[in-house]
Design a protein that fits this description.
This protein has 277 residues and is of the alpha/beta class. It has a domain of 191 residues. Helices cover 36% and strands 14% of the residues. The protein has 8 helices and 8 strands; from the N terminus they run ββαββαααβββααααβ. Strands 2, 3, 4, 5, 6 and 7 form a 6-stranded mixed β-sheet that branches. The protein has a two-stranded parallel sheet with strand order 1-8. α1 links the parallel β2 and β3. The longest helix has 24 residues. The two termini are 20 Å apart.
Amino acid sequence: MKGYIATVNNNVCKRLIGKVVLYAIFVDTRYTRPWTSYDIKSTLDSIQVAKTWLETRAAESNQPLNIEIDYHKNKRVIPISQDLPLKDLKRSLLTIPVYTGIRRTDNWANRVSKEAGKLYPTDSSSMVKTKVLIKDRESLIAKIRDIHKTDNVALIFLLNNYYMNDISVAMHTASNDNNIEYAIISYKEPSVIAHEILHLFGALDLYIGPWDSKKQVKKRKEWAMKEFPDEIMAFAYRDIDSLNISNFTKYLIGWDNTMDEETRKKILGKNIYPIKY
């Protein structure tokens, strides 16, 4: 029986092509380091490096890409205080049953989005019959789309976990349930930021993660790491200038129209296919 995974043109983050808005929200929690002016500036610098790297890789693939960086601010960045469901992201998300961790993390992201939305006045345009209040990440993205006049909005939440042992994650990227993709990033390396942005637009992890318990899955990812020794989806914590994007990942994000069939089988398995939209 064939199985399918969602990649490019899925949910909110359709294609990493053309005008894309990267909207960042800095979040303080009880157990993470508080955001200082230096931390915020250095993280914005890293986001800029990730942006330039992605735009350069796109140009090399003959794909137009212009990433606009925006963030929660009122003349200056204002971190939002919102504790995670549990002490850190790893414990909040990687819990049993899995859907409980996902639901709690989604609710956290919605609360942060609601707070971020308070900086925007209620839409008073005569063209809008219903006044839209920002109450979750979906309505926040709708507002950002309206402001920037683009459909492609990548929403990221930033935690100041630079010296802690936690995870970064992109949510709802492999499902086609019209849910809102977003990423929570715990570290400020440009490679990690670019890695999570690529996830939002369809890329898959090619390293062995804590959730990869099956022998066959580990074997496939070991093959990918050997086959693509500079792949950003396999080695996210290296210096970004030493990394690249493989043809496999380019296909998943819509930068390449063809995928090598043998590579697909080696990484996804004999009967798993990317959904074609």
